[in-house]
Input
Amino acid sequence: MIKPKLLHNYLQSDEAYSKQYDDIVKKETDWWEEQMNHHALYPTDEDLKKTREAIEKNHKEKPITDDDIKDAHHRLFTLGAIATKMGIKKTWEGKRVKTIAEWKKDARQTNKRILGAIPFDNIKCKKCNILLNYRWSMLHEETAKNISKVLFFYYCPNECGNNQLIFADGTPWISESDNTCAVCKGERNSTVTKDNAGNSYIIFECKKCGSRQVEKYELQAR
Output
């Protein structure tokens, strides 16, 4: 039985998680600061109208000029940018320990899932007809489709370049080069399915011309 090997360890160091968290906080605070400063420098007529109403409500003893309104608006949003940035940092800091702990938990579970999938030990090179060498395992994720599957990588010891990527369920990974329509060279959708006997088939359907091809995928049992 082949011992699984991680392509990379999903569990990072405390320093790496801390930096990742800091980067997220900085990205959000910078975005809000940029928005507030933009409003400070480029107020809309509606912004200036609201600022005038607020000032005139509390300063009725003297006339207020347009420049006074612009200056007041600029100071208000500049201070608001600082206050917003501090508030966001405080909120995120309160969630730091819990969030990083959740990241670590997810990473450990991912490592465990990958290492729990036993690689196939008799995958042959389609060109040389010799056994391929297993190299590593990783988690393949397609967020849009809500798909995550363990993926194995095999390479040919003859270095012929005919390497293979195979999912833990025995289905192949379909590359873009293998997903081109044989009729019109257009892009194809690919679906992997199995029959009652456990045989795997790849169904290709061209997005451009609508042609369909079915290929049987041969994978020996463990």
Summary: Helices lie at 14-41, 45-58, 66-115. Residues 136-217 form one domain.
